[in-house]
Write a structure and sequence with these properties.
Helix content is about 0%, strand content about 50%. It has no helices and 11 strands.
């Protein structure tokens, strides 16, 4: 397993941008699929985006497609989530998650990830 620490959350006005970072420690990070999830108060944790170990394949929830971009820098053990054109409904605690996999496997199910960060709050005001 890897240890994950998110940062970059904050308060932003609707239409603004934020970039979240997920820094990992652990030898399996470079072979891990990494996902971003979010959880708003009173709601279940939901999938946002995922990226395979090589960065060659990505996946996005329909609600964030064309607004959010996931990327990674394995040399820095970091995955990013660039969030543009933010909406009030994007307000949530954002979590990154990692799972070492064989090959390039995209995962949407949170139960498929074994390592989680502590989360970072994103608040979008209208």
């Amino acid at each position: 397993q890897v240890q994950l620490v998110e940062s970059g959350g904050g308060l932003v006005q609707a239409g603004g941008s934020l970039r979240l970072s997920c820094v990992a420690s652990g030898r399996t990070f470079s072979s891990s699929t990494v996902g971003w999830f979010r959880q708003a108060p009173g709601k279940e944790r939901e999938f946002v985006a995922a990226i395979v170990w090589s960065g060659r394949s990505t996946d996005y929830a329909d609600s964030v497609k064309d607004r959010f971009t996931i990327s990674r820098d394995n040399a820095k053990n970091t995955v990013y989530l660039q969030m543009n054109r933010l909406k009030p409904e994007d307000t949530a605690v954002y979590y990154c998650a990692a799972q070492a996999v064989f090959g390039e496997l995209l995962i949407r199910n949170p139960n498929g990830f074994g390592s989680w960060g502590q989360g970072t709050q994103v608040t979008v005001s209208s």
